[in-house]
Amino acid sequence: MKVSEKLRRGNVMAATCPAREVLQHVTSRRGILALIALESGMQRFSELRRKINGVSERMLAQTLQCLESDGLVDRVAYDVVPPHVEYSLTPLGREAAEKVRLLADWIEDNLPRISQAREERQGARAKQAHPVPARASQ
């Protein structure tokens, strides 16, 4: 790959690559959930907060600001009382949502296998931490 192509594309494995910041925004738990929630269309902040159960207002607002600054989310604020703000995915955001949806679907589909692997590893760690003493020969 040519140097100019590397600079244009980025190198997410490099510590200084600006793509890492976007990767963090898109792949954070809240980022993934916001992108998936917005796949169904434009939504008000309160709708998104209800849809994404367990996220604080502050963290959701921060996540949406990051996704907006990355060009993945559009924010439209209406000059009314009470404030009315709507969020939707940009074309770039729709592409990102499609990709993270595949990852989220894979995780949900494989959750039984993942849970089983966790249990097996926890059991193995417990055995290592508390080995059964060998009996002395008589």
UniProtKB/TrEMBL annotation:
InterPro entries according to UniProt: HTH_HxlR, WH-like_DNA-bd_sf, WH_DNA-bd_sf
One Pfam family name is HxlR
Q: Which UniProt keywords apply?
A: DNA-binding, Transcription, Transcription regulation
**Ranges for region Disordered:** 118-138
The family database entries (Gene3D superfamilies) matched by this protein are listed as: Winged helix-like DNA-binding domain superfamily/Winged helix DNA-binding domain
Q: Does the keyword Membrane apply?
A: no
Which parts of the sequence belong to the HTH hxlR-type domain? 17-115
Keyword check for Transcription regulation = yes
Q: What is this protein called?
A: Helix-turn-helix transcriptional regulator
- Native species: Halomonas flagellata
